[in-house]
Amino acid sequence: MPAEFLDAGFRHVLNAISDGVYVTSAEREIVFWSQGAERITGYSAEEVAGKHCYDDLLVHTDASGRDLCIDGCPLQDCIEHGIEHSISELFLKRKDGERLPVYVKTAVFEEGGHKYGVEVFGKLESVAGKDLAAYVQELTDSSVADPLTGLFNRRYFDATLEQHFALFGRMGRRYGLLYLDIDRFKAINDSLGHSVGDEALVFVSDIITSSARKMDISARYGGDEFVVICAVAADQELESYAQRLVGLVRKSRFGPVAGSDLRLTVSVGGSLVSESDADERSALGRADHAMYRAKEAGRDGVAIETSA
After folding, report:
1. β-pairing, 302-304 with 266-272?
2. Are residues 106 and 214 in the same domain?
3. Could you list the residue range(s) of the whole structural domain that residue 226 is in?
4. Based on the domain organization, do 39 and 139 belong to the same domain?
5. What is the rounded distance in angstroms from the CA atom of residue 101 to the CA atom of residue 117?
6. Is residue 224 flagged as an active site residue?
7. Do residues 65 and 140 lie in contact, with contact meaning Cβ atoms separated by under 8 Å?
8. What is the pLDDT of residues 34-91, one digit of tens each?
9. b/e per residue, 215-250, with b = 16+ CB within 10 A?
């Protein structure tokens, strides 16, 4: 839906603003993306044209790590209820993956019988100062990230999983879940020490991170367990993703186990969300169960469990 009402003069004014500005339709389809938005986010206007603001683009989160693009979008609230927002402690994800503290303002207007939403956003440090922006960033990182691996922590993952399940119920956006466990992790800890165990956790988390796509969510779920929300819609896709992770860990050289009878491998279970799932934890439970089946089958492998 092109925004013909934005004439050349108006576009020039919006592009002269240092803040980022974008305009969406009532359905949150992006119809205008300013030069400031390009500069701050790294996304060009051509890359976002026709996409929706909830398409894992900016991934707005609040200080607790809640994904507002899925649950609690201030722009959606503004469009639907006419309530304008001004929020000073949100975060967006740039194209390069950096999480950036920003302030956000929203407004709504009508033109030609159609309703449009407007969001203006800018770097928090430009209004709050670098020290405060850095402090807010530090607080938020510590609340959502695992300090050892840098992956998201269980708290953030559980909240995000709930939001994905809600979005699946509303819009049918299917996703898969992978549950990973390091094989014989206790033996690595007992034989080589806990510091080597920590190195193994970081080693596996780095492989997970390097393999993740932009829309995936990876977390350390506890101990030597990792979980991933995958943007896939078929069992075969999910299994291919899992096999790739297992193969990468197997083929990568983890120096500390060299010369011992130990190997660093993982077992992975997976399952897709289903309309028959009672809640967001149903598919996660199946993935966990499948992971144990992979263990029982000899470890260093994959098992995918379908829904009932």
Report:
1. parallel
2. no
3. 154-304
4. yes
5. 22
6. yes
7. yes
8. 999 999 999 999 999 889 888 878 888 876 677 887 778 899 989 998 888 888 778 8
9. ebbbbbbeebbbbbbbbbeebeebbebbeebbeebe
Pairing of strands 86-93, 99-111: antiparallel
Do 131 and 158 share a domain, yes or no?
A: no
Catalytic site residue from 146, 181, 224, 277: 224
Q: For residue range 91-124, list pLDDT tens digits in order.
A: 888 888 888 888 898 988 888 788 889 999 988 7
Torsion angle of C-alpha atoms 237, 241, 247, 251, degrees rounded to 10: 140
Specify the pairing of strand 114-123 against strand 20-25.
Answer: antiparallel
What DSSP state is assigned to residue 181? E
CATH number assigned to the domain comprising residue 178: 3.30.70.270
Burial of 21 per CB tally in 10 Å (0-12, 13-18, 19+) = buried
129 token code pair: 């100062």
Q: Which helix (H) or strand (E) holds 290?
A: helix 281-296
User: For the chain, how are helix, strand and coil distributed in percent, rounded to 5?
Assistant: 40, 25, 35
What is the reported pTM?
0.63
Nearest to 215 by CA among 250, 241, 251: 241
Beta strands in the chain (DSSP E): 20-25, 30-33, 86-93, 99-111, 114-123, 176-182, 217-222, 225-230, 266-272, 302-304
Position 2 in a domain: no
92: closest CA among 48, 46, 147? Answer: 48
d(CA 11, CA 26): 20
Domain CATH code at residue 133: 3.30.450.20
What are the CA-CA distances from residue 1 to residues 4, 52, 204 (Å)? 9, 11, 44
Report the b/e string of 127-163 with b at 16+ CB within 10 A.
Answer: ebeeeebeebbeebeeebbbeebebbbeebbbbbbbb
- Here the tokens at position 61 are 């989160």
Same domain, 13 and 77: yes
